[in-house]
Amino acid sequence: MVTLELTISLLAVGLLVGIPLALGQVYARRELVLLTSIYERFFRSIPALVLLFLFFFGSSFLGISLSPFLSAVLALGFRSSAYQSQIFRGAIQSIRQGQMTAARSIGMSKFQAIWHVILPQALRRSIPSWSNEYSSVVKDTSLAYAVGVIELVRQGRYIIVRTFEPMIIYITIAVIYFVLTYAGNRFLGYLEGRLEIPGFEAKRRKE
Amino acid sequence: MSDKKTITLKVANIHKAYGTEEVLKGISFEVKKGETKVIIGPSGTGKSTLLRCVNRLTIPDAGRIWLDGVEVTHPRTDINKVRQSIGMVFQDFNLFSHLSALDNVRIGLIKVGKMEKRKATEEAMRQLARVGLEDKAASYPAELSGGQQQRVSIARALAMKPRLMLFDEPTSALDPELIGEVLEAMRDLAESGMTMVVVSHEMGFARSVCNEIIFIENGVIVEQGPPEVMFENPQHHRTKEFLCKISELYGKSERK
C-alpha cells in the first residue's frame, strides 16, 4: 500500500534528519546552530502543499526530475524532520545537565555521552510528542495526491470513477486512516510502557 | 616519612571568573598519595568550581594542575583519558537514570575502558559489594534511597580505578539518617589508601579522617592545616568564626 510506504519513508527521513538536527541545535558550535535553525524555520514555515509543488516542479525545472513519490518523500520528510527536531530538542534539553557532567567525568567523550546517556533518555521522553507527529504524518501523506502519487485518496478516486459510490468510498478511506493512526498510536503507547524506566513513573502520576 | 610520598595532585595558582565575578583568585595546594583533604568555606566561594577545574569540567582562566606529573590543564592533554583516573562524586548523585545500578557502574568499564562485558560485570559487582550494595545491582536509581544512590555513584567512580577521588558535597542532598552510610563508605575508602579531595561540611568526617582542612573564602585559601590545629588553634579569626558556625550546625551530629 502506497500510503503505508509513504508514511514509513516520511517518518524515516524525519527521524534520520530530525535527530541530528536536534543534536546540532543543542550541542553544535554557533555557525552550525544557525544553519540548523534556518533549515528548521524554512521547512516549518512553508505549507506542505507548496513544499510538495516546489520539490516536484522545482526538481524538473532543475533537470533532476524526481518521481512524484520521491518528491513527496523528500518534501514531506524534510518538513517532518523540522517538526521532529523540535520534539527531540525539547527532550534533550529536559535531561538534567548532571547526566552529561557525570558521563564526561568517567571519561566518556561528548559523542559517547550523547549516544550512551543522553539519547536513550531523551528518546524515551520523546515518544508521547512523537506520537503526535506520527498522527499528522499519516494523514499528510494524502497531500501527495496533488503531485500524482497513487496513494489512498487517489486510489479511492479511481474506484469512485468506476462505481459512482463516493460516500462509501470516502468513508472507507476515512476508516483506513483512522485504523492506521490508531494502530500506530497503540504501538507507540506499548513501546512507551515497555521502555519505561522502573521507579521513574513519568507516565502515571497518581497524586 | 610522609614528606617522601609522591605528590598525586598539584594545583597551582588557579584563577576563574564568571563574567566580572572572580570566583577563584589564585588557589594553590598539593595532595600527596593516600592523603585526604577536606575543603570547607561559605557557599559561593568557589569550592565546587575548584573541584571541577581539577578534572577540567570547568576550564580555569589561569593556573595549572597536574595529576601524577601530567598536566591536566594543558590543552593537548587527552582529557578523556585523564578523567578516567579521576573519580568524581556529585552532590545530587547524577546516576544515569535509565540504567540499573549494575549498568551504571559497568558502563564506563565497557564503553570507555573497552573491557569485555563479563569481566566488567565481575568488576562492577565487586565495587557494588565494596559499598554494600551487591543486592541492589538490578535496581534503578529511582528505586534507591539517596544514600544508596550516592554509594552506587561512588562505586561507579571506583570502577574506573581512579588515582584520585573528588567529592563535591556528597552528603548535602541527603536526609540526615542517610548521611552516615555514605560517610562510612568514604571513610573506608580513605583508609584503604585512596587519595581524596572532599568538599564537605561534615566536620566529624573531617576531624577523624582527613590529613588537612583547607578553608577557602572569597576565592582564596584563608588557612590550611591538620584538623587538630584548625579546630583547636586556628590562626585566623575568620577560620575560627566559620568553624564555630558549622560545628554548631553539624558538629553535634558527629558520628563514629
Map the helices and strands.
The complex is a heterodimer of chains A (207) and B (256).
Chain A: H1 2-27, H2 30-45, H3 48-61, H4 68-94, H5 97-105, H6 110-140, H7 152-163, H8 166-194
Helix pairs in contact in A: 1-2, 1-4, 2-4, 3-4, 4-6, 5-6, 6-8, 7-8
Chain B: E1 7-18, E2 21-32, E3 36-40, H1 47-54, E4 62-67, E5 70-71, H2 79-84, E6 86-89, H3 101-112, H4 117-130, H5 146-159, E7 164-168, H6 176-191, E8 196-199, H7 203-209, E9 212-217, E10 220-225, H8 227-232, H9 237-250
Parallel strand pairs in B: 3-8, 3-9, 6-7, 7-8
Antiparallel strand pairs in B: 1-2, 1-4, 4-5, 9-10
Helix pairs in contact in B: 3-4, 3-5, 4-5, 5-6
Report on the structure:
The complex is a heterodimer of chains A (207) and B (256). Chain A is built from eight helices and no strands. Chain A has 207 residues and is mainly α. Chain A has one domain: MetI-like fold, CATH 1.10.3720.10. Chain A starts with a helix and ends in a 13-residue tail after the last helix. With 256 residues, chain B is of the alpha/beta class. Chain B is 38% helix and 24% strand. Chain B is built from nine helices and ten strands. In chain B, α3 (101-112) packs parallel to α5 (146-159), α4 crosses α5 and α5 (146-159) packs parallel to α6. Chains A and B meet through α5 and α6 of A and α2, β6, α3 and α5 of B.
User: Tell me, what's the shape of chain B?
Assistant: globular
Number of strands of chain A: 0
CATH topology (level 3) name of chain A: MetI-like fold
Helix and strand element order of chain A: HHHHHHHH
Name the pair of protein chains with the most residues at their interface, and give those residue counts: A-B, 23 and 29 residues
- Structural class estimated from helices and strands of chain B: alpha/beta
How many domains in all of chain A? Answer: 1
Q: What would you call the quaternary organization?
A: heterodimer
Could you give the order of strands across the largest sheet of chain B? 6-7-8-3-9-10
CATH architecture label of chain A: Orthogonal Bundle
Name the helicity range of chain B. 25-40%
- Rg calc of chain A: 20 Å
Query: Can you tell me the overall shape of chain A?
Result: flat
Number of strands of chain B: 10
| Biggest sheet architecture of chain A | none
Rg of chain B, Cα atoms, Å: 18 Å
Give the count of helical stretches of chain B: 9
